[in-house]
Amino acid sequence: MIWGLIQAHSLFLAIIPGWFEPSPVILAMHVITACLLTGILWFMFTRCTKVEREQMFVVLAFIVLCLVFFTIYEQTYGSWVLFSDRVMNHDALGKEWNASELTSLGSFFILVLAPFFAWLWPRLERAGWNPSKPAKSGYGLILAGLSFVVLVWSARHPQANGLTGIWWFVFAYFVLEVGEMLLSPIGLSAVTELSVPRVVSLMMGGWFLGTSYSEVLAAGLGKLSSMEIPEGEVLNVTDALAKYDALFVFSAKIGIGSGLLTLLLTPLIKRWMHGVK
After folding, report:
1. Residue 95 lies inside a defined structural domain of this protein
2. In a domain, 4, yes or no
3. Cβ contact 133:277 at 8 Å
4. The domain containing residue 216 runs over which residues?
5. Cα–Cα distance between 28 and 17 in angstroms, integer?
6. Bridge partners for 16 per DSSP
7. pLDDT digits (tens, 9 = 90+) for 189-247
8. Among residues of the chain, what percentage have pLDDT more than 90?
9. Which CATH number is 209's domain given?
10. For residue 14, is it within any domain?
11. CB-count burial class (<10 Å; 0-12, 13-18, 19+) for 6
12. Closest listed residue to residue 193, CA positions, set 94, 92, 123, 276
């Protein structure tokens, strides 16, 4: 079945012509999500105590936060790649870097940052300064939004040749990966700690289903900066920068806005966690 869906990923089903024309893969995702959510809600309201139900609602909240974050993050494989390829200088450290090579910055910063955060959280916990899981997620979303602010700054302050500087791009990646270290491992931990033991693996599947939806949404966001370059013509860098600027501002608003909302809801989320740190 999975093989068949993959083979038909480029087809579109006109279920509601002009309104709902998903590919078989997207339709399958919708059906799985509807069945999963129905089953989870049934379980929560018929098989859980009040405490367990509230903790499960928190798990669902973390899955939503994951979806929002990775909707922003997955643009690193779409609009960020095109931005770095089309409107950015590529010289750094005596080398000409291409767009595909720069996608490795995400992995590089995760490897660099992981030991630091593994050292940091226990020390903050002993000092009584360790932020709660929802607060960390809120900060992670805000940092994701701020990484786009860095790119907006670079787009509005190009270098002498009209292209943006590569080091702004590197810094944007750094900010984004700090945000991921605050949200992704913390969210995964929350799923295992807060889920009712009988459905831990199911809720973990829900987490990864959320990340798959984020890729679909990220592709939709990337279309906001799509440009057609007629054959034989050259890309207008000024117009391209304006397109990317608009997309990045919108993405920044999503990240920062959802992060601030998460921080506002943190007291309620902590209360529903019932002591789980």
Report:
1. yes
2. no
3. yes
4. 19-273
5. 18
6. 20
7. 999 999 999 999 999 999 998 888 888 888 888 887 777 766 666 777 888 898 999 99
8. 65
9. 1.20.1250.20
10. no
11. exposed
12. 276
